[in-house]
Each structure stands twice: as structure tokens, then as C-alpha cells.
Specification:
It is a single chain. The strands form two sheets. The protein has a six-stranded antiparallel β-barrel with strand order 3-4-9-6-5-10. Helix 1 runs parallel beside helix 2. It has 175 residues and is α+β, with helices and mostly antiparallel strands. A hairpin with a 2-residue loop joins strand 5 and strand 6. The chain has two domains: 56 residues, Translation initiation factor IF- 2, domain 3 (Rossmann fold), CATH 3.40.50; 94 residues, Translation factors (Elongation Factor Tu (Ef-tu), domain 3), CATH 2.40.30.
């Protein structure tokens, strides 16, 4: 339903200059089965940037059309949770804002990763981790079982008991 295949012109016989002109005008690809373009048509196709695909096996033609249509589909993404931390305490730092003192319950919390804040099971904010610290040291990542300080770019409404979920978006193959 998302991708539509339209035939501009169907004919029997070799690929001609008229076929090339029509394909150039309609921004189409020429598909030929057991035919070849003549020399003039091939020259015109090169100058007009018209793609010509010829096949001798019908299954290859159908396979290529299917692959081309799949390539036109918009990608779908799946969110995969990479870490979860519980906010235990809030620290207010002048000129920086709120820092969430957290305990990593599972996975890995990584600086720069996508994050969502949950309060009572409801997503209250989505964004990215701006800063991540372990004690006073900057950290690239903090693993399960450790404590850390999480700074967020534009979210200050933190409360103890909130959950921080980090996640990646992975592309799903469409079919």
C-alpha cells in the first residue's frame, strides 16, 4: 500500500529511441525481457541518464522489481532498551541545573544515548543524556550495579523514584 508500481508504456520488440524519450520525460526505468536497445537508443539513454535493465530470466526481473520496491519503503525502527536506572536523589547545581543521582538497575547507561523518563509507568520526557558522571569523574558509560550522576539538556522536573530508560533505535527490515 505504501509503494506503487506504474507502467508508463508496454510494447513488444526492441528498445527504441522513442522508449528512451518517454522514459526520460516520465523519469522512468526501462525494463526489457529478451531484448536489447539498438546503438542509437543506448547513446540517447546515456545522454538522458535513463536506466535500462534487460533480463533473460523472468524470475530475475520480478526479483529486481520486488527489491527496488522494498528499497522505496520508508524504514521502520524498533526501540531496544539498553539500560535502566532509578533516580535516588536530585542535586541542584548552580548554572547547570538538576543532576539526577541514579542507581543503574540493568544494562548500561551511556552518555549521549537516547533516554526517556518514566514516572509511575508514564513517559514524562524524551531526550538525550547531556552529561554522565561517576563520583566527580566524567564517564562514557556506567554499568549495572553502579551509581552515577545524569545531567539532561532541557529537563529539570526530576523526582526521586523516576526511572531513566536508555534505548537505541534499530532499523527493521521491511517486507
Amino acid at each position: 500500500d505504501e509503494v506503487e508500481l506504474t507502467f508508463v508504456h508496454r510494447a513488444v520488440g526492441g528498445i527504441t529511441e522513442n522508449d528512451i524519450s518517454l522514459a526520460a520525460t516520465t523519469n522512468a526505468t526501462i525494463l526489457g525481457f529478451n531484448v536489447r536497445p539498438d546503438r542509437k537508443a543506448r547513446t540517447l539513454a546515456e545522454s538522458e541518464n535513463v536506466e535500462i535493465r534487460t533480463y533473460e530470466v523472468i524470475y530475475k526481473l520480478l526479483e529486481d522489481i520486488e527489491q527496488a520496491m522494498l528499497g522505496m519503503l520508508a524504514p521502520e525502527f524498533e526501540e531496544v532498551v539498553t539500560g535502566e536506572a532509578e533516580v535516588r536523589e536530585i542535586f541542584r547545581v548552580p548554572r547547570i541545573g538538576a543532576i539526577a543521582g541514579c542507581y543503574v538497575r540493568s544494562g548500561v547507561i551511556t552518555r549521549g544515548s537516547k533516554v526517556r523518563f518514566l514516572r509511575d509507568g508514564t513517559i514524562i520526557w524524551k531526550g538525550a543524556i547531556n552529561s554522565l558522571r561517576r563520583f566527580k569523574e566524567d564517564a562514557r558509560e556506567v554499568r549495572e550495579g553502579f551509581e552515577c550522576g545524569v545531567g539532561l539538556s532541557d529537563f529539570q522536573d526530576l523526582k526521586p523514584g523516576d526511572l531513566i530508560e536508555t534505548y537505541d533505535e534499530q532499523e527493521i527490515a521491511r517486507s
